[in-house]
């Protein structure tokens, strides 16, 4: 089966700034593909290029079998795009918003589709409420429902869970997995590590460049990190001393613990054992997390323009 | 503890921040400087409530020296710019209807003989009184022209009962000189200019400002559908506004309605389109609603002052008339007053119809060039 997204060499400039460089991306049909990277790394721009909101300066490829440069009108019909900021109409009611979007996409059996969406949302008694008065979690659910009205084959979700409480986030991801099981491809950008771990595959973007792709496990193991957990009284006091030890690449605080990571076989274990003994701390072998891998990725690569 | 007391340092912080933001907002800064200058120029130089050199046609059936002397005296008063070409009565009447001349002065066939005989021959002065203020000064000057014009040419002549001629002034189209006849039809144009430009300007920038434009662009909707779909409601609102003003004009201000209502609505429709294209274009130039509002104001001010709505168009210097001629309101005022007060038909209106189309074409070209199909 042809991948849902298959693009190569996508570039985008805003004036002097080169915000996306030679982006190559393959996303299989039915996959949940996570898009990660720091703010300003080009995630939103990449998503906007995929759904035809921005025209790439150069590059080629297809999205759902249509050319990304020439057939954006046809791509739009089969893509559900959820913007980072709530972008439905605050001064339209829930039902009016859904009805408008359904009209824009020429949805067959429009009123049935809208009624169905409202029922699925569980908003039956509230369809006349103005969208602007909804809470963050409900706005997000409404946006997703609006994206799904025209039964898209691909969902592009730009930080859909920003500012949403944990329960709503969990429900949201349950729904994403159901959609994926039904064959819908999902490309979702996020800053949350727990969400990244729920994706089938990930891509990590920084300074407009794709730095890593793969399953969460592949990305972690590709960094070749070994991680130790350091515990003890007032352990935070030692973090800068630990950071200065030879071979240490990362030190991160987790409550009463410090996670210290370094390359796989550089004798860091022995170094840490000596340090712990001298300072009355305990050291145990841990597992590098996805977050460790990303922070390491970010610290050990640099902006090609700054170089 | 400094929680309740005022701090000078804090206060300066607010002042400095305000200045920094003001400087960044170029358009607001432009307004602060531009509006006073614009108003000074317009009120100081362009506006003149006692216009001179008003175009005048003379119908002379008796081209003797006495009639010529009277015409020369009119010219000398500086209130009249008399066309040199001799005109027939019918032709002069048409020029008055088209608004090309403000006055038509007619001398009867046996003017000289009747004058010499002391029969007090009439001089017929037809005034286009659609704008009673514009013609007021000149009309009062005419009434002062009198016997001293003729006495040097007629030695020993003694005018009968103090007056040698009978001046018959016909205030055409507005015999009672009511300014409401002039203002109320003009208001149609002013109201449409303000609401149409502003509302469409806001309609597009509102989507952009709230981020909903991105959602709209992500749907299969085409720019053409978006633009025209957004315009249609305002066309209907505009037509509703016009109907309200017309009803008030007819039943409250008793403004005559001489011409065809259908023609009036057709012209109104074209004028609405001109303003809507401008509104849409401004909105694709403006980055937010405030800017759209400011741009509308910059357009609205000269429209009000230089179109002939508030002050007589003919009283303005050439440069101001040139600017005025580029504004759709100027032409619309002549068209709407022509239809309502003069009962003009389409053929009389053509000279002021094509500028509206030219305006639409020019602004539309600019608008299509600046409309962003994507978010780029």
Automatic annotation (TrEMBL), chain A:
For this protein, what is any one GO molecular function term? ATP binding
CDD domains xrefs: ABC_DR_subfamily_A
Domain ABC transporter, chain residue ranges per copy = 5-232
Keyword field contains Nuclease:
no
Q: Gene3D superfamilies, per this entry? A: P-loop containing nucleotide triphosphate hydrolases (3.40.50.300)
Pfam families tied to this protein: ABC_tran
Q: Does the keyword Chaperone apply?
A: no
Specify the superkingdom: Bacteria
Q: Which UniProt keywords apply?
A: ATP-binding, Cell membrane, Membrane, Nucleotide-binding
Family annotation (InterPro entries): AAA+_ATPase, ABC_transporter-like_ATP-bd, ABC_transporter-like_CS, P-loop_NTPase
Entry protein name: ABC-2 type transport system ATP-binding protein
Source organism per entry reads: Rhodocyclus tenuis (Rhodospirillum tenue)
TrEMBL record, chain B:
What terms describe the molecular function in GO for this protein? ABC-type transporter activity
**What membrane topology does the UniProt entry give?**
Multi-pass membrane protein
- TM spans (from-to): 27-47, 183-204, 231-253, 259-283, 295-313, 319-340, 352-371
Q: Name one GO cellular component term.
A: plasma membrane
User: Record's family?
Assistant: Belongs to the ABC-2 integral membrane protein family.
Task: Give yes or no: UniProt keyword Transcription.
Answer: no
Q: Name one Pfam family in it.
A: ABC2_membrane_3
- Protein's name in the database: ABC-2 type transport system permease protein
Q: Which domain of life is it from?
A: Bacteria
Is Magnesium there in the keyword field?
no
Task: List UniProt keywords, sorted A-Z.
Answer: Cell membrane, Membrane, Transmembrane, Transmembrane helix, Transport
Organism of origin is Rhodocyclus tenuis
Report the subcellular localization: Cell membrane
Q: Which Gene3D superfamilies has this protein been placed in? A: abc type-2 transporter like domain (3.40.1710.10)
Residues annotated as domain ABC transmembrane type-2: 139-374
